[in-house]
Amino acid sequence: MDTTTAQSPQAASTRRTGWSLSRRLGTAGVTLVVVVALWHVLTAVTGFISPARFATPAEVWGALQQIAGDGYSNGRLHQHVLRSVLLVTMGFTFAASVGVVLGLAMGASRRVEAFVNPIFLVLRPIPPLAWIPLAIVWLGLGDAAKMMVIFVSAFVPSVINSYTGVRQIDKPLFEAAAMLDVTGWRYWREVLIPGALPSIFTGLRLSLQASWTTLVAAELVGAITGLGQILNQAAQDIYPAMILVGMISVAICGWAMTAALAWIERRAMPWRTLQ
Q1: Buried-state track 178-201, b at ≥16 Cβ within 10 A, e below 16
Q2: CB 84 within 8 Å of CB 218
Q3: How far is the C-alpha of 107 from the C-alpha of 36, rounded, in Å?
Q4: pTM of the full predicted structure?
Q5: What does the alpha-carbon distance between residue 149 and residue 141 come to, in Å, rounded to a whole number?
Q6: Cβ–Cβ contacts within 10 Å for residue 213, how many?
Q7: CA–CA separation, 213 vs 198, rounded Å?
Q8: Which of 8, 177, 240, 275 is the most exposed place for a label (fewest CB within 10 A)?
Q9: Which residues of the chain have pLDDT under 70?
């Protein structure tokens, strides 16, 4: 008698996902070690790259200890990180909320698209950084101006991808919804949002990336604390090691928020993990 227990697709998928994650982490660790070793050789050992232009790993470690312990540019590292993460989170959340709803509405209604699209097409080509002077004039040099610029940069990808997601939903799904008289909020909850969800999350990832890019640029002007302020002050002090500390901090924060968004995406679309 065969006593072998059949494994469910969910269990098999979980095992494959765990194995894949372990391999990715292992590969990333090896790559990081190789990059740091090559960096050390090119700067500290051979001098092929002048340490005056690109700091050595030891100098970056010293700068990290300095800003984490004694502080630099009006704050310690955790204070700079918290300020930047807070601004990105608030600006991104507001922009994503408004942008996704507007994109879904434009995709679902020809009337909404006809009304909003001309205005959107006029504003879309304007680079987000071009709004910085106007944001300063309107809101001053405080956090409100930075959040406005982040909103502008994150808003456009959210709208475009949400709109595209609705337009890519299979036509038979709309026909079935009409036949079953699915209307109102139920129509949004059961048809529009699930059908457009993959494209929505693509837009959110792009919006998050744009938020970090814009924040660093906005903090170069008029910021008291923040990762952009670290970069600005270190450039004025001609301090390459601290510049790299700021850049690495931005990269880690951006990666962590992207990973959090990916976690939310997996929870929102569990069926994709089974593919």
Answers
A1: eeeeeeeeebbeebbbebbbebbb
A2: no
A3: 47
A4: 0.82
A5: 12
A6: 16
A7: 23
A8: 275
A9: 1-21, 181, 221-222, 271-275
Instruction: Let me know if residue 66 belongs to a domain.
Output: yes
pLDDT (tens digit, 9 = 90+) per residue, 17-37?
A: 555 667 877 787 888 888 889
Q: Which long-range contacts (CB under 8 A, 24 or more apart) does 226-231 make?
A: 226/80, 226/83, 226/84, 226/87, 227/80, 227/81, 227/84, 227/253, 228/84, 229/73, 229/74, 229/80, 230/67, 230/72, 230/73, 230/80
Alpha-carbon distance of 256 to 263, in angstroms, equals: 11
Measured between alpha carbons, how far is 265 from 58 in angstroms, rounded to an integer?
38
CATH number at residue 113: 1.10.3720.10
Structure tokens at 135: 């944001």
Supply the range of the domain harboring residue 133: 55-274
The token duo for 108 is: 């679902």
